[in-house]
Amino acid sequence: MAVVIYLLCTVTSIACSGLLLRAWLASRARLLFWSALCFAGLSVNNLLLVLDKLLLPTVDLSTLRLATGLVALLLLLFGLIWEEE
């Protein structure tokens, strides 16, 4: 059951990133761009979760997963702050 949940989370974040990127290409709103980058980073984070828990259970990828999640959220935070100016 965990396999299905991990994969669905990965597919959902990839879909969100793609839809946000498509919306950004249509409107050129910068906040959509930063949101798309954030979800792309979260997609990488979810993919690393699948690798860490399912494919490579002996290798600890938790630090890399946390780093990618942090970078993804910092991109969105940067975009939110930059849009406010």
Q: Helix and strand succession? A: HHH
Which bin fits the share of residues in helices? over 70%
- Gap between N and C termini: 45 Å
| Unreliably modeled segments | none
Biggest sheet, in brief?
none
Any idea how many domains? 1
Annotation, overall tally of beta strands:
0
Mean pLDDT: 93
Task: Classify the beta-strand content into a percent band.
Answer: under 5%
Radius of gyration: 14 Å
How many DSSP H or I helices?
3
Q: Could you say which structural class the secondary elements and strand pairing correspond to? A: mainly alpha
Coarse morphology: flat
Which terms would index this structure?
flat; DUF5985 family protein; mainly alpha; DUF5985
Walk me through what this model shows:
This protein has 85 residues and is mostly helical. It has one domain. The chain contains three helices and no strands. Keywords: Membrane, Transmembrane, Transmembrane helix. Pfam families: DUF5985.
Secondary structure elements and pairings:
Blueprint: H1 2-27, H2 30-55, H3 62-84
InterPro entries: DUF5985
Transmembrane segments: 5-25, 31-51, 63-82
Keywords: Membrane, Transmembrane, Transmembrane helix
